[in-house]
Design brief:
Elements: E1 2-11, E2 14-20, E3 25-30, H1 36-48, E4 67-75, E5 82-89, E6 95-98, E7 101-102, E8 115-118, H2 124-127, H3 130-144, H4 146-170, H5 177-180, H6 183-214, E9 221-224, H7 232-241, H8 243-249, E10 262-265, E11 268-269, H9 270-273, H10 276-298, E12 303-307, H11 315-327, E13 338-342, H12 345-351, E14 360-365
Parallel strand pairs: 3-13, 3-14, 8-12, 12-13
Antiparallel strand pairs: 1-2, 1-4, 4-5, 5-6, 6-7, 9-10, 10-11
């Protein structure tokens, strides 16, 4: 499973560019501002239908242009490969074609050619609010299970309808009967989502535990997620108790959309007590656990995208992480397809990541190259 070729047109600071990727390691290097992270962003977008840096697709269009185009060729050892095209025009919707057929959107992409990205932008998962962690885990679980994604989308739709009914009360356009009608379907969907999350979290904790124990240093990182009330009568009773509060706030104040996941560093809440370094290494372990978790579900490792990671970690930890990556191989003893960006090739050589892969593909980007 992996990407073998990508074509970018009018994407970020790339006018027209094509890149090939090897099955093992691809190193993309060059000065800051040459489009290294943009390349990873484009690869990720072909996998997930969305950037890991922005929620505004119009910002992905090269300055002076009105649209962008991406094409990715994917290969797999267990299924037929895919040709994915994504076209976006400002003031319009994004179009996705898989093997020449137009799809309904992002849902058709999720889980087909998964990627795990480790970038400075991802640090909000550990440092940010509950919504950042919910978004991360919902995405990981959706990659592994189409049923989870379907239930998540159903729940969000029901929640939006109930919240709209609450807003109409405030505007004097409806009564509370318009809200109550959504309680039971919302509760049923919420309980299904909680059941699925509980099972997925149990397995993700195992993946995280495996990665941490394989690291070879005394580090204690865990995730905390408490099981929620799964009795429909108690769920409905809680919604009823909050009627007045929900009406004032115009939003539903109970349910899985408010879940939080705690990152624990030696038993303490990382968000509260963690240093910059502890946040960085915790994110790395979270991402390596994601890698292992997806492999356990889909049978193949996803592609790993590392955005200048080793410039952010000390040499000792970088070398230990490389050793850990080296041990994470597929059943046929093939290494994980990895795309690394760096400003300095010597840093990559120093930490030993080149030794993981027999063959390494390199691309040097210059400012002339990306225009």
């Amino acid at each position: 499973m992996g990407i073998s070729k990508i074509t970018l047109s009018s994407f970020r600071n790339h006018s027209q560019k094509e890149f090939d990727f090897g099955d093992g390691l691809t190193v993309v290097w060059g000065e800051n501002g040459t489009g290294k992270t943009s390349l990873l962003e484009a690869v990720y977008l072909l996998s997930f239908g969305k950037s890991f840096k922005t929620h505004k697709p119009e910002t992905l269009v090269k300055e002076g242009e009105s649209s962008f185009f991406l094409r990715g060729v994917f290969s797999s050892t267990t299924k037929k490969g895919d040709l994915v095209n994504i076209y976006y025009k400002k003031q319009s919707t994004q179009k996705v074609l898989i093997n020449g057929k137009k799809t309904s959107g992002r849902k058709s992409l999720i889980g087909k050619n998964p990627m795990v990205v480790l970038s400075p932008e991802e640090q909000e998962i550990t440092k940010g609010g509950p919504s950042e962690r919910r978004r991360f885990f919902d995405r990981v679980f959706s990659v592994c299970s189409g049923d989870y994604l379907t239930e998540l989308q159903k729940y969000r739709k029901l929640l939006k309808q109930r919240n709209t009914a609450l807003l109409r009360i405030k505007k004097g356009l409806g009564g509370f009967g318009d809200v109550v009608v959504w309680n039971e379907p919302l509760a049923k969907s919420g309980i299904k989502l909680w059941n699925s999350r509980t099972e997925f979290f149990k397995k993700f904790k195992n993946s995280l535990g495996f990665v941490v124990s394989s690291y070879g240093e005394d580090i204690d990182i865990k995730i905390g997620y408490s099981e929620k009330q799964k009795d429909i009568n108690l769920y409905l009773e809680e919604l009823k108790k909050r009627e007045q509060k929900d009406t004032i706030l115009c939003r539903t104040t109970f349910g899985p959309h408010l879940d939080d996941v705690f990152m624990l560093w030696f038993g303490k809440n990382l968000k509260t007590v963690g240093s910059q370094g502890e946040h960085k290494i915790s994110l790395v372990f979270l991402k390596l656990a994601e890698l292992s978790f997806i492999k356990n579900y889909l049978g193949e490792f996803p592609t790993l995208l590392l955005d200048d990671l080793f410039a952010k970690l000390d040499l000792g930890r970088s070398k230990r992480l490389v050793s850990l990556l080296k041990s994470m191989k597929s059943e046929d003893n093939k290494p994980i397809q990895t795309i690394v960006t760096t400003t300095n090739l010597l840093n990559i050589e120093k930490i030993g990541i080149l030794s993981i892969h027999e063959n390494t593909t390199t691309h040097q980007l210059t400012k002339q190259c990306s225009t």
